[in-house]
Amino acid sequence: xxxxxxxxxxxxxxSVSSTNDRLKEMVDAPEFTCVIADQQxxxxxxxxxxxxxxxxxxxxxxxxxxxxxxxxxxxxxLMSAIAVAETLLERGIAGVDIKWPNDVLVNQRKISGxxxxxxxxxxxxxxxxxxxxxxxxxRSFPDSLAGIxxxxxxxxxxxxxxxxxxxxxxxxxxxxxxxxxxGASIIDRWQELSSYARGKKIIAQLDEQAIEGxxxxxxxxxxxxxxxxTGELKIIFSREVICLRNDAGKVE
Length: 252
Ligand code: BTN
Prior knowledge:
Blueprint: E1 2-5, E2 8-16, H1 19-24, E3 33-40, E4 58-65, H2 75-90, E5 96-99, E6 103-106, E7 109-118, E8 128-135, H3 152-156, H4 162-182, H5 187-193, E9 198-206, E10 210-218, E11 224-228, E12 233-236, E13 241-246
Parallel strand pairs: 2-3
Antiparallel strand pairs: 1-2, 3-4, 4-8, 5-6, 6-7, 7-8, 9-10, 9-13, 10-11, 11-12
Helix pairs in contact: 2-4, 2-5
The chain binds biotin.
């Protein structure tokens, strides 16, 4: 089924392996082409994790962006997390947070994740697929996610219309993407929305070392500044991080 929500053109499927992978097959599609599925059989998260994608319970959405320049491209996944967080705030949800770089949490449990994948390195033909999963109507999660995941239905006690939520999120995405294109600050809004921005004691597990310290804001490309116990400033980038824990050692 094809749905027009200008500027978005939405290809809606009942089931796909992964909406990111389905959209990758539409390599020459116009900007803002989207793939949405009622379920994903092989939904993917960052670092080869699976994304729990049961039928009708979540929003499984991928959006094709064709940014005109590589500059500030790393901010597009932060921008998407801002858009998700704002949809929750607009619905009056309390306890909304963004865990660096782009996990959206409610009351410290993950409600949304973002997987951004580049498709071309030729500057004239840049394409970025932004895959967004939002837990909407899940009433329970498998044991492996119990205690670390939540859904809008669990937070509100209400059943959520996936289509209404989709339209609300796309409106926020367009708003923030236009701001990104115009060069407006993404970092400022991200820092307003995230308790991880400053003063958070964290342990970041990288490939070969762990960095422990207190967060001190984002760099202009979205790296996380961390002041270690010895007062040294480290900057960590999302591609390096295997796992980020808060000071209590809790894996969120
Ligand atoms: C993460 O938190 O690890 C990222 C999760 C991203 C999940 C979404 S669901 C829609 C899109 N299709 C996928 O296979 N993954 C993303």
